[in-house]
Amino acid sequence: MFTSQTSSFQESIDVEEKDADFDSEELGVYSPKVQHINSYYSIYYYQNTRSESSEENVAWSQRRADSTTSQDDFSLTLLDSSLPAEAEPELRSYISRRLSKGALLGGMGNIATVELSVPEQAVGCYCCLLEQERSPEQPEADGNGIHYRSKESIITVIRIELDKYVQGLQSSLTPEMQNLESEVRPYLSRWYEESVMHIHRVVQLVQNNISYLLYAALSHTHVEVTGADERTKTDVARFIKAASLQGLVQEEPSTASLCKTISEDSPTDLLIDCASSPPAFTNAVSNRFCDDWIQAFINAAERFNPFLLRQILENFKLKAIQDMNNLKRFIRQAEMSHYALFRCCLFLQSCGNGDVLLQNARAEHSGLPEACSIIRVLEEFLGEQAVGTREVVTR
Q: How far is CA 195 from CA 199, 220, 265, in A?
C-alpha cells in the first residue's frame, strides 16, 4: 500500500517546529488558507530469489516484466498503484534500494521522505513489508505504505493507525492476487479515510462541543453514542482513545483505584445522541483547560488538515501530562512545606484542569497517606473556590 498528501501537510510541520512551550491560543489564531489534500497508494509483490521459486511464480513475474525491478537476490513487481505513471517507477526504485539495504523489516512500518514526480514533489512515505504465512516455496508479498509532504516527524503521530490498517490487508494477499479488484484495491483506496480522517470527522460532528470529548478522555469517562452508524461510533471511540493519557503518565494508576475514583467522581456516562443535528449531549462536562483548546481544533478542521488536528491533539495531551507532573511535584513538596501547598493551590486554580488532575493524583497516590491528606486539602480548596472549573451541561 502506498499513499501521499499535499502541501497542507507543511502547516502541521510549521506548528510542530514552533517553540515547545506553546499554548492553545497560539494554535487557535494560526490559520493559513485551506489546502487540498491528495493521497496515493501502491502495492508490490516482493519475491526473494535466493530461494527456489516455483515455475508458476517465475512465469507470473515474467508476464509483468515491464513493471518489475530485479536485484541480485530479489525482485519487486507492481501489483496496483494510484500514483501517476511517471512517479510509480521512482517509488519502486526507492523501495528496491531500501530492500537491498535491509531497511524494511516484516510487519514494521517505516517512514521516510521521498522525491517523486507528483504535484507535491516531496512526500512522506510509509512503507510496510507484509509477510504471509506460506509454504517454503511461496514468495513474500509486500504492501507498501504512505507518502506525505516534507518531513516524516508528523506522520509518526499516526504510525499506529497505519500499522493496524496495513495488517488488515494481510489476509487478503495471495500470490496471484485474484481478489485485487474486489478486495485489495478498495481496501487500499480507503486508507486515508480510515486511518487519518477519523479525528477530522469527529471535530466536524461535534464542533464546539469537542471540549466535552476531551474532558471525557482525560477523566476516563465512558462515552456512549446513539442514533449513529457504526463508523461514527468507531470514530468517537478512537478519538477518546487517542486523547486519553492512559499508558503515558509516569505512574500508571492501578485499575482498581482508578475505577473507584471514576465511580465516585463521574457516576454517569457522557451520552451523545446523533439522531438530532447538531448532536445532543447529556451529562456533558468540561473545564476551562479543555475549553481553551476548542478554537484550535475548529480552525484546523476548517482548513481540512487532519495532520494538524492530530498534532494539536498530541499537544493537548502533552500539556495535560506536563501539568500532571507539576502537580505531583508540588504534592511531594507540600508534604514538607506549607508554602509549597500554597503554590499547589495557586497552580490548580490557574491551570483550569484542577479537577481532572486531582482525580488522577488521588488514584495514583491512593497508597500514600501523607499525599492523600494533601490531596484532600486541595480538593476542599477547589470546592470552596467554585469558580467554574467544572461545568455540567445537559442538552
A: 9, 24, 33
CB neighbours of 282 closer than 8 A, spacing ≥ 6?
Answer: 270, 271, 272, 273, 394, 395
- What pLDDT is stored for residue 209 in this prediction? 97
Q: Are 35 and 1 in contact (CB under 8 A)?
A: no
Q: Of 298, 290, 296, which is closest to residue 317 (Cα–Cα)?
A: 290
Specify the 3-state DSSP secondary structure of 361: helix
Buried b (16+ CB within 10 A) or exposed e, 371-393: beebbeebbebbeeeeeebbeee
Residue whose C-alpha cell is 510542530: 16
- In angstroms, the CA 301 to CA 278 distance is 16
Cβ atoms of residues 177 and 183 within 8 Å: no
Q: Which of 283, 287, 271, 260 is nearest to 356 (CA)?
A: 287
Q: What is the mean pLDDT of each run of 10 residues along the chain (395 residues)?
A: 42 45 53 64 81 51 57 80 90 88 75 80 80 52 43 61 85 77 90 91 96 96 95 96 78 47 62 94 95 96 89 94 90 83 87 89 78 82 60 46
By C-alpha distance, which of 238, 264, 231 is closest to 379? Answer: 264
- Long-range (24+ apart) CB contacts under 8 A made by 333-342 are 334/374, 335/370, 335/371, 335/374, 341/374, 341/377, 341/378
Tell me whether residue 39 is exposed, middle or buried, using C-beta atoms within 10 angstroms of its C-beta: 0 to 12, 13 to 18, 19 or more.
buried
Residues in contact with 266: Cβ distance below 8 Å, sequence separation at least 6, in sequence order: 219, 220, 221, 285
Please tell me the predicted confidence (pLDDT) of residue 27.
Answer: 53
Please name the residues in contact with 301: beta carbons below 8 A apart, sequence gap of 6 or more.
200, 203, 204, 309
Distance in angstroms (rounded) separating the CA atoms of residues 188 and 193: 10
For the chain, helix (H) and strand (E) counts, in that order, are 17, 11
Cell of 354: 484542577
Looking at residue 57, its pLDDT comes to: 52
Cell numbers describing residue 95: 523501495
3-state DSSP assignment of residue 156: helix
